[in-house]
Input
Amino acid sequence: MGRNRHKRKNNHVVIVTSDAADSRMKQFRIRPWFLQTVIVILCIIIGALIGYFIYEKDIWAAELEKNMTRNEAIDILEQEKAELEGQVAELNEVIAGLNEETSKLNEKVKILSETVSQQVAAESELSGQLERRYIPTRLPLSERATMENVTEDLTCVFTAGAGSLVVATADGTVTVVTEDPEYGHNVWVDHGNGYTTIYRNQGDVKVKQGETVTQGSTLFVISDESSKLGYQMMQGDAYINPMDMLEISG
Output
């Protein structure tokens, strides 16, 4: 009993006062456990602050290093971007140059195409002219003549004045030079395209077998004694009417 009677509860007293003349003192009793709790909390806060300030340098250094690394990466990317933009600009210049060259080449191709077309047309025209030179469409006399008739064997009989020339009606090769019982002589010209023309006259022959003649080449010279010309034409192995082929004007 005596021991318990001497055991007393310890309280802490907090006195709050003011420097005013009429102020009163206020006393607050604080339990020991509450004060201990407050002290522990303050120690934890102070320790946290101390730890924060201790490691703040490392945190900021790490953040700074991270920022520097990011900035370096950004600088590298910016540099690469600038290089790519430069390469793109160079490529654009090259493309522009190529487009200009292509335009020039297209113009040259157009000119060459037109030239080739003109040459082809000219060659086609020339070829047509050459082909026409081998088609016996010309009158077989150099001067005007009178056609008497067409015989049953499809011989056109012409009468021409002295001095007129019996001429080849197209380009070809002389294949036959023989005597003719009615006209004196005959000359055969093969035109190489299936056509063969036959000229019959009493005058002297002016060509030889195997000789190449052109349209208008002289075969005979008409004289007073040889005014008649018998003219025949063959296509393949058949005689045809020469009048169907002759181009007569005048």
